[in-house]
Specification:
With about 250 residues, this protein is an alpha/beta fold. It contains 7 helices and 7 strands. Keywords: Oxidoreductase.
């Protein structure tokens, strides 16, 4: 089990102040890593960072970062290196899937916004971080994808297309940045994060009967995959799309 130890590592998690990102941040800190919590709302990042310090004793840096803004990627990485001197693990977790009334009602602005956050931003951050990791001896990049990328539905069209692109760049970057930098994706199913509180609970429970697990996932249940891919236990795993979806059809 020593292969899963992250002591001495520095991990940056986008969208790290809530949901799956927050769970991954906690898991990494508990495994010994120092963490960088990045999202658009600095106050949320600061709160999460304080909780991590209190519960794990690890260093935690809160950063305001809008994934969809191309020019913010380099300054964000500069801030990480100024604080810690290195970056070993990047988790591109931040994402968005806004609702729309019909396919013809999807505006260019909505389309661009979804692609900026789910594809363009993660690509830019991974490209810059991966190059720095390679120059510093290596590292691990983990992209949080979605089952929508493989089983798209009418209500997730722009999001599904962006996440399918994220799958593609995961494989391409693994070849581009290898052999010292590993790049993988977690293809996540339906998790019961704070967003799920707005769902029709009965309707979802009925839908979940079609899952092998018969339920949605708890945020902490993504942490095993995230810890594996970040750690030396996954030293020969790169360019992979790891599905964590409770057997979702």
């Amino acid at each position: 089990m020593t292969g899963f130890d992250l002591t001495g590592k520095v991990a940056l998690v986008t969208g790290g102040s809530r949901g799956l990102g927050r769970a991954i941040v906690q898991a990494y800190a508990e495994a010994g890593a120092d963490v960088v919590i990045a999202s658009r709302r600095l106050d949320s990042c600061e709160k999460a960072a304080a909780e991590v310090r209190e519960t794990t004793g690890r260093r935690a840096l809160p950063l305001a970062y809008h994934v969809g803004h191309w020019d913010e990627a380099e300054s964000t990485l500069d801030a990480v290196e100024a604080e810690f001197g290195r970056l070993d693990i990047l988790v591109n977790n931040a994402g968005m899937s806004p609702l729309y009334d019909s396919v013809e009602s999807i505006s260019e602005a909505l389309w661009d916004k979804v692609f900026d956050v789910n594809l363009k931003g993660p690509f830019r951050l991974a490209a810059l971080a991966g190059s720095r990791m390679a120059a510093n001896g290596g590292g691990s990049i983990i992209n949080i994808s979605s089952r929508a990328s493989q089983r798209p539905r009418p209500h997730t069209l722009p999001y599904a297309a962006a996440k399918a692109g994220l799958n593609a760049i995961t494989v391409a970057l693994a070849h581009t940045l290898g052999p010292t930098v590993r790049v993988n994706a977690i293809v996540a199913g339906t998790f019961l994060t704070d967003v799920s509180k707005a769902w029709d609970a009965d309707a979802f429970a009925q839908r979940a009967q079609g899952f092998a697990a018969r339920r949605g996932g708890e945020p902490e249940e993504i942490c095993g995959a995230a810890l594996y891919l970040a750690s030396d236990a996954a030293s020969y795993t790169t360019g992979s799309l790891l599905t964590v979806d409770g057997g979702q059809p």
